[in-house]
Amino acid sequence: MKNWKYFMGTAMLGSALILGACGEESAQSEGTSNTEGGEAVEGSVAGDGSSTVAPILEALVEEYSAQSDVQVTVGVSGTGGGFEKFIAGTTDFSNASRPIKDEEAAQLEEAGIDYTEFLLAYDGLTVVVNPENDWATDLTVEDLKKIWVEDGTTKKWSDINPEWPDEEIVFYSPGTDSGTFDYFNEVILEEADMVSAATLSEDDNVLVQGVQGDKNAIGFFGYAYYLANQDTIKAVSIEGVEPNNETIESGDYSPLSRPLYTYVKNSAVAENPAVYDFMKYVIENAGAMAEAVGYVTAPQEEYDADMEALEGLK
């Protein structure tokens, strides 16, 4: 199976040169990329969270580790699972493919954990089908509701359009701890129950494999996972608009365009030079790496605002 890490192998050839040059230039000109007060930064940083954000962060960790003594670990428990660890105080940052929920923010406040939200990139949640599916090439939001909302029946493609095959639909969805599930639930299902027949997984590669293996399958996940496997799965246009960098950035790919975040513990930045150093590297290079792994760079003013916020935490 081809997953995003295979895609990264080719993308990193170019991005490594770009990011490496950026890191070297930053270290030489500012003296802060891998040093603090003239001394090399050491220590550890721990993060967790969204599988959608993982391609960006894990690639940045690989690049960063090549030029730093800081040890960075990034788990992939899904957005909800990542916030649980963040609330428990076991991580320094938490990756998310949706904004933090009110109840999560309340739990952090109760735990005495102040945090800052950083925008990393934009994503287009991508609906995919098997390459043999030559009927469901363009779906409306209403079609998606009919397909994915539980109504007590065994759903067939012909239920959505009588001209489509009289065969059962096979469903693959991110798990309930995933921010991608939450986002889809909000904008497509509108908080209704998802079909009970869906196979759920926090690992997007499991979803990719499922769609690859069944002509009647349909699934959804982040845009980068589609790009990494586009030779074996097919993206569906939504309301006549296909997901690509231009439509995601412009917002034309609606309502499935969305921002990607990381949330950072303020005290970790203030008290641990390793956390500050790594987050500085992330903000400086998130845009370039987002493009390298298949997402969409945010406007530069967003990264400038992120950097200003980070500096304010020291």
TrEMBL record:
The complex is composed of two ATP-binding proteins (PstB), two transmembrane proteins (PstC and PstA) and a solute-binding protein (PstS). Keywords: Cell membrane, Lipoprotein, Membrane, Palmitate, Phosphate transport, Signal, Transport. It is a lipid-anchor. The keyword Transport applies. Belongs to the PstS family. One of its GO terms (biological process) is phosphate ion transport. Residues 36-47 have a biased composition (Low complexity). PANTHER family: PERIPLASMIC PHOSPHATE BINDING COMPONENT OF PHOSPHATE ABC TRANSPORTER (PTHR30570), PHOSPHATE-BINDING PROTEIN PSTS (PTHR30570:SF1). It comes from Chryseomicrobium excrementi. It is found in: Cell membrane. It comes from the Bacteria. Residues 1-21 form the signal peptide. Its main location: membrane. Involved in the system for phosphate transport across the cytoplasmic membrane. Residues 27-47 are annotated as: Disordered. This is Phosphate-binding protein.
